[in-house]
Amino acid sequence: MKIAFFADTYYPQRNGVATSVGSLASALKKFKNKVYVFAPKIKGFVDNEKDIFRIPSSRMWPTIPDSARLPLPALSPVWMKIVLKDYDLVHAHGNGFFSMLGLVVAKQKNIPFVLTFHTLLNRYAHYILNGKLITPKMADFILKVFANRCDGVITSSEKMKQELIKMGVKKEITVIPNFVNLKKFAVKNQYFLHKNYNIPSNHQIILTVGRLAKEKNIEFIIKTFSKVSRNFKKVHLVIAGEGPQKKHLLNLSINLKLEKKITFTDGIDIDKMPLVYKDADIFVFASTSEVHPMVAIEASASGLPLVLVNDKAYAQEVVNGENGFSLPLNQEEFAQKIILLLKNPLLREKFGKASLKKAKINTDEGMIVKKLMNVYEDCLQKKQ
After folding, report:
1. How far is residue 119's CA from residue 103's CA, in Å, rounded to a whole number?
2. CATH topology of domain 2-179+364-383
3. What does pTM read for this prediction?
4. N or C: which end of the chain has fewer CB within 10 A?
């Protein structure tokens, strides 16, 4: 099958959606499908893979994450390639203008349009004039209208499916979970974090990964770590990510007198991320704005015990007391469970093995591709 992916974000951009799209494209190709990826042009970056077409774009609003851009196809010779190529269907990823461009192409060619919703748009309304221009309710309305124009609607978690139904989406919604290539995370520990960020070799590492932004709730993790470090001295918090809250979070760590025990790595190349996870002892995440976060899947694939906020987005990744802890958003409870894991290497090992086992069960590329192909074939049949 020939499939055109229109992605709001793609490699080398560092975010879960880009990683998810890349994983899915690779999996489809393994099963002898042809996948064309149309994504934002990144200054200075040259793709080393075939069938990736970059479209010039501009940032929509200064405060909006750079992963949401406005495509400018008329400024690029790629537009003719988009128009002239034959596809069986268009599969768009995201809620932005690149996905809308995919809808235009599908309508123009009279082929099915499938859309995967990766993001709860209403949680990001605050990026435009603090939510005064586009309110959460308006964001929900936009998603509803967009989804009801699709031939097929996909999301990566039951949580997002229920959100879309509440918004008034009438189309059938298929849940196809995110996944990773397990082989990429089967690396030896090269002590990447200890060596590159001068972390004492006898210090355990608590890791969180994500954009430094309000919706990721990194502030909660820093305040929790403050409680942990009072009770457990040989421990270090690594925050892997970049974003608009960095200055605020740095100041918070200084005010809590934790600047020597917290490391902000900024952006790390995607290819290096398996080494980052491998050098950590515990993975912590407290965002309630997620759909099915890639970072939790990657941590699980790396064999890490997980300490996560109790949210339906993580239902597939963590079983409380089996491979980690699923907790209410309470600093004291988070701190207690982290300390328990820090003090018990055998429990960490047990949870880590359970995480890896769970990742192997969840990451069945053949099953995921089969489920996706069923959606595609159903859409093609209905279009005839």
Report:
1. 18
2. Rossmann fold (3.40.50)
3. 0.87
4. C
